[in-house]
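Database export, one record per block. Field names are fixed; values are copied verbatim from the stored entry.
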Amino acid sequence: MNISLKFFQSYELCQGKPVANIQILVYEEFITLTELDLIFECSLGSFVVNGKDTGQNKLACHTDGTGEVSVSIIGPDVGGDGQLTVFLQENGRQIGIQPYHLKATAHYTLNFNVINDYAMADGIQSNTVKAILTGTGSGVNLAKRKLDLSVTGSASFEKGQIIQSTSVDTDASGNASFGLYNINQDGEAVTLTGFLEASKTAHATEQIHFQRNLDCDASPPRGGIYIRTIFTYSINNQQYLLRQRECDHLVTVHKLIAGGQQGEKTSAGQKWVNFYDLIFPFVLGEQQYIFGLARNFINTPQNNTHKSYWMIAKLDEKGHKEIVDCDYWDSNYDVGFAYKAGKGQFIYLHSKDKDSNGEYPYVIYEILPNGKMGKLTEQSSWDNFYGATFFFSMGGIEYIYIHTITNNNAFTYELSKDGKIGNKNTSNTWEYYYYPEFSYIIEGTYYYAGQRFYDNYWFVSYIYSGGVPDPINEHDNPWDTNYQYQVPFSIDGHQYFLRQDQSKDHWYITELLADTNMGSDTDSSVNH
C-alpha cells in the first residue's frame, strides 16, 4: 500500500494562543482512502477536540467518506515550530510528516531581583531571590508559569541537601521567590540561571554571593571579647530581647516575660549578612522597624569609597528582617536613637570622627510613614563626641541628653516639633564620665542611670520637671564588672534593665524601684 497525503493549513487564535488547523487528504494513487484509522502526533502544543484543549500530543481518528480528516493544534503563547506526524493505527507505520509554525502572541522577559545576598555558606542561611516574569502581546499570561532554574558551585535550592536544578511556578503577577543555600564554608559566587519553560528565549542569569561561614564557637573572637548590639522591642504587647554578636553575626531573640525573666528563644539561629554596630528600634503604626548601620559591610558595591552601610527593616518576633530601604554613606555614626517629635518620626546619629572643622558631626533624618528614609532635617556638629546619649519625653516636650568623656560635660537640649535640636535646656559637668546611660519612668517619675566608665560604680538619679537631670548620686556598692550594654524595659508596670558585659555570656536582669532604688536581680545568665 503506497499511501500519499496532502496537507492544507490555516491559522487562528483561541484564548490568546495560536492554533494551526491542518486538513489532510489521504489517497493511494488516484483513490481516496475512506474510514482509514490514523494516529496523529504533534511535537509542539496539543490537540483541540470539540473546541477544547485536550492537553494531549497524540490523537486517534479516521478519514471521512471523502478521504479527508482535519486536526487542530493549539500552541503556547510564545509560538514556535512544530511537526505533525501521521501513523497508521493498524501497524504504527509512519505515512506522513508536516511542519507547522505557530506565531507568538506574547513575548516574555525574565529577570532576577536578589533580595538578600551574601548569606553565610553554612548550609542553613539562605539568600533570597525573586524571579520576575513580564510580557507583551495579546496572549500574555503571567500566572502559574513554570520557570526552570539551575545553580552552580556548592549552592542548592534546598536546605540540607544538594539540589541544583528545580522548577517554580509564578504567582498571578508573574513573580516567584525562592531561597539558595551553600555548603562551601569558604564562601563563593555562584551563577543562577532561569528559563521560562515554554520559551528558551526568556531567560536570566545572576551572580549570587555567599560569604565565608563565621562561627564563634569554632573560632572565638580575639581576647574572648564578644562585641554585640542589644535592644528590646515589642510586637502585640509582647516584649522581645534581640542580641547580635559581631564574631559570626548570629542573631538571638528571646521573649521577656513577667517577673523580669528572659523567656523562650524565638529565633532560629539566623545570621544576618552584616553585623550592625548601631541598631535601634522604632514603631510606625502597628509595625515594628529597626534602623541598622554597619561600618564593615559585606555587600560592598563596585568602586566602593563609602564608610558605612545603613538599612531600615521591618522586624518580626523571630528576628527576621525585611529590608524596606538601604544605602551607603560617606560617614560613620557611632550613637543614635529614634524619636517622635510633632507629627514626625526622626532618627538622630552622631559620629566620633572629626569633620573638616575639627568638630564632631551629627545628622537628623526624617523617617517616612512607609519606613523609608526621608529628607535630611538637620546637619551640624558638636564641640566634642558625646558617647553617652539618650532621648526622653516629658510634659509634651522631647529632650536629648548628651555627655562627653573629654571634659565630663553633660547637656540636655529640647528637640523641636520639626525634629531639630532646639534650645539648650541644662548644662552640667559631672565628676566622672558615665557610660552607658539610659532613662526610664516609674509611676510618672523620671530617672536616669548608668555606670562609671573608669570602674564599676553605678548611679540612679532623678530627671526633674522641665527635663532637668539631678546631679549624679553614686551608690556605694560597685558591680562585679564593667557592663558595656545596659537596656531598660517595662513589663506589667514593673521597670527592669538588662546589663551585659563583653564576655561570652554574662548578664543580669534587675528590677528598678522608685526613689532611685535598685531592686533584686530577677534573672541572670547562670539560669540559662
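Remark 1: The CA atoms of residues 58 and 450 lie 81 Å apart.
Remark 2: The two ends are 89 Å apart (CA to CA).
End of record.
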